[in-house]
Amino acid sequence: MRKALTERILATVAAVLVSGSVAAGKEPTKLAQLSTDEKKTESTPSAAITYKAPLRGAPATRVGGGTRSVGTKPMTVLVLAPNDTGYTTHDKPTLYWYVSQPLEYPVELTLISMESLDAASKPAVELKFTPPTGSGVHALSLAEHNVALKPGVEYQWFVAAVGNPAQRSNDVVAGGTIKRVAETDAVRARLKDVPVASRPALYAGEGIWYDAIDELSRLITAQPDNRQLRTQRAALLEQVGLAEAAAFDRAALR
User: Fold this and answer.
1) Which domains are delineated in the chain?
2) Can you give the pTM of this predicted structure?
3) CA-CA-CA-CA torsion sign (15, 101, 237, 28)
4) Mean pLDDT per 10-residue run, the chain (254 residues)?
5) Cα–Cα dist 137/127, whole Å
């Protein structure tokens, strides 16, 4: 079954590259947790966050995300990733994904290095989350699984909702691309001077998507009723075309 999943995902990666358009794990955490020091940091976040894509006009690499019927209900799976390759400065970042409704069947997450795309290659991460899985935003910490990204290497990652293990062609699959880049001296210096609440805007403005969404999501975990934080994440998601995931945050404000 894993071989079939890997082969299917590799076929998806190949299709994306051509077109230019598009083990058992623990229960997925609802959102990554802040450290004790971060939880104690009380700051007012800046009003707006703008993501500046580092590679303007780059081919789209995000795939899937459409609404399909799995089991008896239509549902949507989205990865919280930009349309093209997103950057991180961390060797073991946290990946975020969204599901529109509670799931009573398994969810699989796979991370594949773009250095080797043949079917015999072993994914860097291959996890299966046992149901139930709640609706909303979920997080997968690579640090918890001791998986480190190589610098300068692109990785494709996928989330698959497996409604029928015997019919894997019916999986709802969403995927994105991530690349680890070096933190510049300018960013490092600015991080020393800004409060925790301003980090998401700093990272987004520098085109470092995954660090921006992680910092913002951690703040939301610590302050789930903070309307400004929810609005900021919704706006950030809308900037990269993830309207349904953004609507989840906006609905939480009502």
Assistant:
1) 2-251 (2.60.40.2550)
2) 0.81
3) negative
4) 49 40 41 42 62 85 71 82 96 96 89 75 83 92 94 95 81 94 95 94 97 97 93 96 94 83
5) 17
